[in-house]
Design goal:
Helix content is 64%, strand content 0%. The chain has 271 residues and is mostly helical. It has 2 domains: 7-88 and 250-270, Rna Polymerase Sigma Factor, Chain: A; 96-246, Arc Repressor Mutant, subunit A, CATH 1.10.10. α5 (116-135) crosses α8 and α9 (202-217) runs parallel beside α10. The longest helix has 24 residues, at 14-37.
């Protein structure tokens, strides 16, 4: 999760400041690079270019935002610069109706129907598949989802970093979560009999889903007296997907990468 670090908690010298940043945030930045870019060499390029840009811009950084917000702003721009569309990468996400087929016949069991061992197994199986699923999201959905649910940034912070409206951030995060929810849903044991038909209009169900997602955004519990069995199944798999995202571990920064960054910073000092 992000830390509330101010610029004055770092050395004034740009080289020393960047070394301290890489010590504190290098592992997470590299881990995010893997998820942003989808491979190790691009992740290393992202870390290197982000830190070189941080070094060059340190003296002009006024400290009005947290250091982490400033750092991830640089990283997101580097990511977009480095990103090249790969063969087979989707251009868009499915519609809400496709992501949440409330009129389907086959539904996953709700979390309350699973024992603790079954639930733990679903989460364990979901981890690797969700990491892969994140890397396969279209970039404009991938970046806000990672910043929100993996790093733990707020909507306004992501809005500033990506230079898009806060409502757009929210919409993209919600759609990306629903895509990952489908991964969890595919791993859940199925209900033995088809659940009762949708009790309300689809619009009511989608309003409930939006309220549920907003509760996740704000880290509060969501309750309602009109949640049907179908919606509960969707909400439970959504909760599991979000929980797995929040627990994705940082990858250790590769040996030698820090030395290569220091060497490049040294060359920039001398130029």
């Amino acid at each position: 999760m992000t830390q509330t670090e101010a610029k004055n908690s770092y050395p004034e010298d740009p080289g020393e400041a960047v070394e301290k940043i890489i010590e504190r945030h290098g592992s997470l930045l590299y881990s995010l690079g893997l998820k942003f870019c989808g491979n190790e060499w691009e992740a290393e390029d992202l870390v290197q270019e982000t830190m070189i840009n941080a070094f060059k811009g340190w003296e002009s950084f006024e400290g009005r935002s947290k250091v982490t917000t400033w750092l991830y702003t640089i990283a997101s721009r580097v990511c977009q610069k480095l990103h090249r569309k790969k063969a087979g990468e989707p251009l868009y996400l499915e519609s809400l109706q496709e992501l949440v087929p409330l009129n389907a016949k086959d539904f996953a069991k709700t979390a309350s129907e699973l024992d603790s061992l079954e639930l733990a197994e679903v989460k364990k199986e979901s981890l690797e598949k969700i990491e892969r699923g994140i890397s396969q999201l279209p970039l404009e959905f991938r970046m806000p989802l990672i910043l929100k649910d993996v790093v733990g940034m707020t909507g306004p912070e992501i809005s500033r970093i990506m230079e898009i409206e806060e409502g757009t951030v929210k919409s993209r995060v919600h759609r990306a979560r629903l895509k990952l929810r489908k991964i969890v849903d595919s791993l859940m044991p199925r209900m033995e009999i088809e659940p009762p038909p949708v009790q309300y209009s689809v619009e009511v169900c989608l309003d409930l889903l939006n309220a549920k997602q907003s509760a996740i955004d704000n880290n509060v519990e969501f309750t309602s007296d009109i949640i049907c069995l179908r919606c509960q199944s969707v909400f439970d798999s959504l909760d599991i997907a979000h929980d797995v995202c929040s627990r994705i571990a940082s990858n250790e920064i590769p040996d030698g990468l820090l030395d290569r960054i220091k060497e490049k910073i040294g060359r920039n000092k001398d130029s």
